[in-house]
Amino acid sequence: MIVMIAAAAENNALGKDNQLVWHLPDDFKRFKQLTTGHYIIMGRKTFESFPKPLPNRTHVVITRQKGYHPAGCLVADSIGSAIALVPKNEDAFVIGGGEIYKLAMPFADKIELTRVHASFEADAFFPEINSMEWKLATDTYHPKDEKHQFDFTYETFLKTT
User: The whole model's pTM is what?
Assistant: First the structure.
């Protein structure tokens, strides 16, 4: 199964200057819980935004840069070739950035979205979720608190077509 996992604001903002524009510790925990032990597919800029590779995950980095081979990562030149690197019986999580999400949308079976209930200035955006192709299966609301500056909702969408 191909799962897109993201945190996006009400205006679909993902981040600015290759950084998230909010800090939600529970969302980080959920991301880790869902992706640990699986393949994670991302663009080069997303990969390079990490201080080091994420533990206990197989990284697949999409880039058109020739000779780009970060240690311990698989490298692909397209979303299709990235997906082809994932064994058929394995789940893969597409983790960004904005262009990679747009390219992955037709291949995805599921979207795990953390909807941040605010709008932000950004330079990377999550694609619109077409209600004719996707059905909201579950949603869980979390109000802001001492650790979370914004309200947010975990939303799981399943492809209908």
Answer: 0.95
